[in-house]
Amino acid sequence: MDFSLGWILLGLPLAFTLGWAASRFDLRQIRLENRDAPKAYFKGLNYLLNEQQDRAIDAFIEAVQNDPDTSELHFALGNLFRRRGEYERAVRVHEHLLSRGDLSQADRHRAQHALALDFLKAGLLDHAESALRKLEGTAFEQEARLALLANYERSRDWVLATEVASKLEQSAPGSFAPRLAHYLCEQATSATAQARNGDAHAFLQQAINQAPDAPRPRLDMARLQQAQGDLSAAQQTLLEALVHAPAAAPLLAEALADVSLQLGNTSDAFARLQALYEQSPSLDILAALVRLADGNTALSERDLYARHLAQEPSLVAATRWIAQEKLEHEQFHPQVQRALDHAVKPLLRYRCAACGFEATHHFWQCPGCQTWDSYPAKRVEEL
After folding, report:
1. pTM for the whole structure
2. DSSP label at residue 280
3. Core-most of 29, 65, 91, 382, by most CB within 10 Å?
4. Rounded to whole angstroms, how far apart are CA atoms 32 and 67?
5. Helix axes 71-83, 105-122, angle to 10 degrees
6. What is the pLDDT of residue 41?
7. CA torsion angle for 335, 337, 338, 341 (degrees, to 10)?
8. How far apart are CA 379 and CA 348, in angstroms?
9. Alpha-carbon separation of residue 202 from 78, 244, 334, 381 (angstroms)
10. CA 58 from chain center: how many Å?
11. Across the strands, what pairs with 2?
12. Within a 10 A sphere around the Cβ of 296, how many other Cβ atoms?
């Protein structure tokens, strides 16, 4: 017993000494590793600030190797790969993060969002949709829904786009009602193409209820009614559209003139368009007034264009006025007219207010930047 106790008393100082030496070694090793990791990290930041992305990636890879448990380094590396277009490597980084069992819930959601962005940038829409769906109920929910909405627009899946926009309308700070109305109009267009006029009518009525001041639902409804032979209803729908969306009168004027002439009742349309023209002169409204002038005004087509020129300098109006005039050398009139018509073509285009994309037809969604309602109702010459 005495012998054993003696050895124990002798062993305690030795064990203490060995433990102290081991801890000092571990601390020294940790200090060395921590010194190396920040050095590589700050080196990467320095390269980033100097826009040397290749070297920044190499530095961050070195930092990750020195400290593989730091999630921030993985996020930085993954974002760098995505910015450089190396989507496969970005996906691998973020999938590696998601596979870690020690990752916090907040970082897991962040990695899921980053992975979804990788798929979106790579054009892998199916994978992106699946990744974005997993963000429901997280801090990234709103961002995920907006990305899903853009995804469904690209694939022209208007049913799912309507579903997501309805959720955003209830939770997002802005209003998605006008965009919802567009999605319903797109579904109505598809239904009309499949001869499902009843469904098309229901979609358009829903769109009108969703966005009463939007011009497109009533314009599309009027065209559907006109195609079905209900001219009175079509005319009434267009007159209501002028009340709810007077700024869109240039887009509605031609359709209203067509329906009114077919119906043989032009007085109401002429009076309403005339009032709107007096408030804001427009080439398209003027063209509709010229078509409806017979029996509604003593002014001729030539007089109407001359009156417009007195208010607004317009090469388009001047070209149309000259078409009604007799020139001193009338034999040259066709050549002159052809040259003028060619010159005014660019002035008759519509221009996207978001990206500047020009088109001969008005678009509800810009083909260039995909922005909704970015085309003004006026032509390039009138902007």
Report:
1. 0.74
2. S
3. 91
4. 11
5. 10
6. 52
7. 160
8. 5
9. 47, 20, 49, 38
10. 36
11. none
12. 16
